[in-house]
Specification:
Blueprint: E1 2-5, E2 9-17, H1 22-26, E3 33-40, E4 47-57, E5 61-66, E6 71-75, E7 78-81, E8 99-114, E9 118-121, H2 128-137, H3 148-155, H4 165-169, E10 180-181, H5 188-205, E11 214-216, E12 228-231, H6 239-244, E13 265-266, E14 274-277, E15 283-288
Parallel strand pairs: 10-13
Antiparallel strand pairs: 1-9, 2-8, 3-4, 3-8, 4-5, 5-6, 6-7, 7-8, 11-12, 12-15, 14-15
Length: about 290
Amino acid sequence: MVRTTTDDATATESLEYDRVSYDLVDDGVEDGTPVSIEYVSPHSGTVVEVDGVATEVRAACVTVELEDGRVWGVFGGSIRTTENSRRASGTVDAKNGQTVGYVESLTFTVERDVATDVDVDFTQTPDEEERRRAEATGDTRDLLTPTDAEVAEAFGVDDVDDITDEMLEDVDTPEPPERVDVSGYKTASGAAKKTHDALQDWAEFLGHDEDEVVLYRPEDDYQGSGTWAVVWEGGPYEWAAALTGGTTLTGFAGPRMNYDGTPEVAGLTSGEGFGVECHYSFDILFYDR
């Protein structure tokens, strides 16, 4: 979903990490950013939560001033004080201070400027529950369609009844990828490459990383097959068996199986110049006839 705003505004975003790394600086965490720290006490093993402000943000270390005035240094996944039993240190250094605990989570609250007349991307990535529900029904077309509640949140209105027609006109829902047919390919290589490209598009649409879909060449000798292979271990349940059976890749996922769905990649049952088989339920092997 994309919103075009004509008002100057700021929006807050919560960024959570399990340790200090270069990602903090890249994500816009800077000096003065509020932070909530959950850590495990090395003595009692309990989880403690404290709030403070990041006073110095570096790639390998964040200095935090707590609400009670104490100053801590977070180095990777460890938290240390600025003082030890031998001497006081004027700076937070990993070599100085006692260990306070080990990071469970660091949550920074970052303010973002929303520029005038700039498209702001509010595309919703489906969570695991939404993905499972869509895969169970075989209906992935509306997976990324924003709900009224998501539209209200994106536009900063408190009630869905306050959503205006002008707001809805600015909502752009991503279209699902086009379905393809590989039955006309004369070689296993062509069919495998086309299937790989199509499944990468569908993986991204379903909220996966497209790189999860891997293409193996004969010289890679996938599972000792010596064939072309398309592998998606993190895909929908038994997706390969579903596609080669002539139904949608989510057809076997969930309690309501869909044997009559339209396959995202058609032609995997009757290719002219190639044959297919599944080694596992998450891969398709392609061989020349």
